[in-house]
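Aim 2 progress update. The chain analyzed this quarter is reproduced below.
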Amino acid sequence: MNTYLITDVKYYGENVSLFSNKLQMTFKKYQPDFALYRDKNSDSYAEHAAEFLAACSKFPEIKGMLHGDVTLAFNLGADGVHLTSLQFNEIKSAKEQGLFTVVSCHSEEDVLKAEALGADAVTYSPIFHTPNKGEPKGLAELQRMVDKISLPIIALGGITTEQEVKAVESTGCYGFASIRYFVET
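Predicted structure tokens:
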């Protein structure tokens, strides 16, 4: 099962040098398959994204992804882009630029739309309780989606323990994504 680390300034900080050092230590410990730079509030997103991708480049097995900005992801040489559930219209552009394209999905309708538009994978969330993310979908719903959809599904939301990782893995999904798992375990 693939692992997908998502950054959050709350855990990694805003200082670029400290961020890079902490990120590299986390990469060494967990060896994720994908890593996503996500910071919805930074005025220095492009600068921090470049530093993030430089850190990723030291670990060639990690696919470095940027959140929500197709042009920046392409210009900085990211491996891919993670689009929000409001960015379905950018899937085509991302694919044309050769970016591995993941889309955040919260319903079967979203997943089917992402699949039809050519996304490479989707995150499906929230699986478990996550602060401020609504009612969890649960493992039965994740299993239903994995069984029904051919598009790779990455479970997201509230996955913070080895027990939850194993439960998600039992569904046969493509992978799991988390912020807290990679900083709290």
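The longest strand covers residues 100-105. The chain has nine helices and eight strands. These observations will guide the mutagenesis experiments scheduled for the next reporting period.
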